[in-house]
């Protein structure tokens, strides 16, 4: 009896030992799984729980308590029998919840740092800045491990097509303006709107799409803005009304405005420090290629009016519309190619999407290694630091709201978020950099675009002076019983009398009739360009199949006259227009002149430094303006234009690189977009001021351009130099921040 009691006692003790050991092993497995899945805060909470377990062996998960030894046996059996490994992990997650007698402040949910809701926002932002500094250093090492190869070159050409579309957009309006003015019957008072409306759209688009790129991502923002540009650029080639054409070009400019800030932010975030300056400069060449492409296509397409077709007299589709369609091809190509490219991994890390960023970085690494013939090389990065995500209050419409109310609230919230990000560009310590960059961007844009408009206008002024000297003046003469079937060009007829004359198939080019009388005359199959009848009298005259619009008869009188088959709308029929070829050729040369500057800036950007190139190029451009004093002929002005463009391109390239490097990831595209919008505003202002001085004086444009360029270059030299800083784009910024704060980075 006594032996059986001892056996039973030893059996109970053995069962208790087994249950206790099973419990310890289960907790050990759970802690190992949590260590792999949770962050540092969760790991500390589980280790604290394990310490409590060792002090109190009677503690079990909720719902399983012990009253004595017998219950201990029973609980052990129920807790361990029939459970697989997944169930044990599930139990372990619940073991992380403290007991009810613990303080409320010690409650920690899985994956949530303890006490974040009770921390001051400044503390959270300080922790985020520390995380960003650590991420910046780590990201540079990761990009160096990924290498520079096939992936970067593929992205280089894809983003280059988007940048090329931006260059084309700038030149399109200038090339189609002469033809569009005639085809759409644009009065002289309204022709200036076509040039300004595109810059207005680009100004708004740069700010909006740049801010959106910091909210939704570089790739997605670029896809949307390029799609908007391509759609409305294509649509503008078919519209007939001037107002609708302006509207389409406005939205087309709004779309392309986001190309520059998004492209440079996107590409800079996949480049290592030692490659960034050079390859961003090479990327700038696509803007030049876009200008050359637009000039070549205009030269090849617009003067060929035989490519036109019409549907009656109401719908006219002339060659300049074909040119607009062709110019939309780079945009369409970039949209198609972008669908195959991933998002910027640096942006994904910034918003806390660790797994997606890691997969893209591994894709970059594997793509480059396979291209090098090293497919066996393994991507060694396992975990990347992500900055602390700070929650923001978002206004959400209730489910009972209508769909348009929900869309309105969503758009308003996004715009407010963009505005907040923009205002952060003026917070300490980046406020000083933003102010300096604003001055440099404004002065360079004002001087460059102002003189770029002034040069062609001066050339036109010289041509008009030459034309005035070649214009034939015919006065006080009388012609009777005659027939004319040739082209009349550059003539002014004053006080003439034409009796029983026939004008058959005549092409009037820049012909003006003043105080003249037409009696019993016939105008048949006549076309005219810049032809006007001022204070003339028509008696018993017949107009058959002519394009004489009422505005061409100024203070004229008609007596017993007839109009048959009058051509409605404005006609483009001047086939061999030498002036059109001349305009395209001048722009082609001016764009091609930036090629040497592009090559020099790309090769020397990382050698002599961004600031040296920026300040030096702007100062030299200002000095070159004084050579305009000697521009007394068309050829000399074209030479000055090429020299000026070649010097300023280095300043543009270095300014793009400096702007990308001086803003952190969370506001890089927003800051770049704001500065690019300021660039377009300065361009419009420069066009107005310099355009009003054409033919008046040379002194004011030369002194004004020289002053703003030199002053802007001197301010640019005061910007922080990021060329020699180790680390990624963001690490350059954090190092500068640390120096400003007198703390080690």
UniProtKB/TrEMBL annotation:
Keyword set, alphabetical order: Cytoplasmic vesicle, Glycoprotein, Membrane, Neurotransmitter transport, Phosphoprotein, Synapse, Transmembrane, Transmembrane helix, Transport
Record field: compositional bias (Acidic residues): 66-76
Keyword Glycoprotein attributed: yes
One Pfam entry name: MFS_1
Disordered as annotated region, ranges: 23-130
Locations listed in the record: Cytoplasmic vesicle, Secretory vesicle, Synaptic vesicle membrane
PANTHER family to which the protein is assigned, alphabetical: SYNAPTIC VESICLE GLYCOPROTEIN 2 (PTHR23511), SYNAPTIC VESICLE GLYCOPROTEIN 2C (PTHR23511:SF6)
NCBIfam families: synapt_SV2
Family label: Belongs to the major facilitator superfamily.
Protein name in UniProt: Synaptic vesicle glycoprotein 2C
Species: Microcebus murinus
């Amino acid at each position: 009896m006594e032996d059986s009691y001892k056996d039973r006692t030893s059996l109970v003790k053995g069962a208790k030992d087994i249950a206790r050991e099973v419990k310890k092993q289960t907790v050990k497995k759970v802690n190992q799984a949590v260590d792999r899945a949770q962050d540092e805060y969760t790991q500390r909470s589980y280790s604290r729980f394990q310490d409590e377990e060792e002090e109190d062996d009677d503690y079990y998960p909720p719902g399983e308590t012990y009253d004595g030894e017998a219950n201990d046996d029973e609980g052990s059996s129920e807790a361990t029998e029939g459970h697989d490994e997944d169930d044990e992990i599930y139990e372990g997650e619940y073991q992380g919840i403290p007991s009810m007698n613990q303080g409320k402040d010690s409650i920690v949910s899985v994956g949530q740092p303890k006490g974040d809701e009770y921390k001051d926002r400044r503390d959270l932002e300080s922790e985020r800045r520390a995380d960003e500094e650590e991420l910046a250093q780590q990201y540079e090492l990761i990009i160096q491990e990924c290498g520079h190869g096939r992936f970067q070159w593929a992205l280089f050409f894809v983003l280059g097509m988007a940048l090329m579309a931006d260059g084309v957009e700038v030149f399109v309006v200038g090339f189609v303006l002469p033809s569009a003015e005639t085809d759409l019957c644009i009065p002289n008072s309204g022709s200036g709107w076509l040039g300004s409306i595109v810059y207005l759209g680009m100004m708004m688009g740069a700010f909006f799409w740049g801010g959106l790129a910091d909210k939704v991502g570089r790739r997605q923002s670029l896809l949307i803005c390029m799609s908007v540009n391509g759609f409305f650029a294509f649509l503008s080639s078919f519209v007939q009304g001037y107002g609708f054409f302006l509207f389409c070009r406005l939205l087309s400019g709004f779309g392309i405005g986001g190309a520059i800030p998004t492209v440079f932010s996107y590409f800079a975030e996949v480049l290592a420090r030692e490659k960034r300056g050079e390859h961003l400069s090479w990327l700038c060449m696509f803007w030049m290629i876009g200008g050359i492409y637009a000039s070549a296509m205009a030269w090849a397409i617009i003067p060929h009016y035989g490519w036109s077709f019409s549907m009656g007299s109401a719908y006219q589709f002339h060659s300049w519309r074909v040119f607009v369609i062709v110019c939309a091809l780079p945009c369409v190509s970039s949209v198609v190619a972008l669908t195959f490219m991933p998002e910027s991994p640096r942006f994904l890390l910034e918003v806390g999407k660790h797994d997606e960023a890691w997969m893209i970085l591994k894709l970059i690494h594997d793509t480059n290694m396979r291209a090098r013939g090293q497919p066996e090389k393994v991507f060694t990065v396992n975990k990347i630091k992500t900055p602390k995500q700070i929650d923001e209050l978002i206004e959400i419409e209730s489910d009972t709201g209508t769909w348009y109310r929900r869309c309105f609230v969503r758009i308003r919230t996004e715009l407010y978020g963009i505005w907040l990000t923009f205002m952060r560009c003026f917070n300490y310590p980046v406020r000083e950099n933003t102010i300096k960059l604003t001055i440099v961007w404004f002065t360079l844009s004002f001087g460059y675009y102002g003189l770029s408009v002034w040069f062609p206008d001066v050339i036109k002024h010289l041509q008009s002076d030459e034309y005035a000297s070649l214009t034939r003046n015919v006065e006080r003469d009388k012609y009777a019983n005659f027939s004319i079937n040739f082209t009349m060009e550059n003539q002014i007829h004053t006080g003439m009398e034409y009796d029983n004359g026939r004008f058959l198939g005549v092409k009037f080019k820049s012909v003006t009739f003043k105080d003249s009388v037409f009696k019993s005359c016939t105008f048949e199959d006549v076309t005219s360009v810049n032809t006007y009848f001022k204070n003339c009298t028509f008696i018993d005259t017949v107009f058959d199949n002519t394009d004489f619009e009422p505005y061409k008869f100024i203070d004229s009188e008609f007596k017993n006259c007839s109009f048959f088959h009058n051509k409605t709308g404005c006609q483009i029929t001047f086939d061999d227009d030498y002036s059109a070829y001349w305009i395209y050729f001048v722009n082609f040369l001016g764009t091609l002149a930036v090629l040497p500057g592009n090559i020099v800036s790309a090769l020397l950007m990382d050698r002599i430094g961004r600031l040296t190139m920026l300040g030096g190029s702007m100062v030299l451009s200002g000095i070159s303006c004084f050579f305009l004093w000697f521009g007394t002929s068309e050829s000399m002005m074209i030479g000055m234009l090429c020299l000026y463009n070649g010097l300023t391109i280095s300043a543009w390239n270095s300014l793009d690189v400096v702007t990308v490097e001086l803003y952190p990831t969370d506001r890089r595209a927003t800051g770049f977009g704001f500065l690019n919008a300021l660039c377009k505003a300065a361009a419009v202002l420069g066009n107005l001021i310099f355009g009003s001085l054409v033919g008046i004086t040379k002194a004011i444009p030369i002194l004004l351009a020289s002053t703003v360029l030199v002053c802007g270059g001197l301010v640019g030299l005061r910007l922080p130099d990021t060329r020699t800083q180790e680390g990624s784009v963001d690490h350059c910024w954090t190092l500068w921040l640390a120096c400003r704060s007198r703390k080690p980075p």
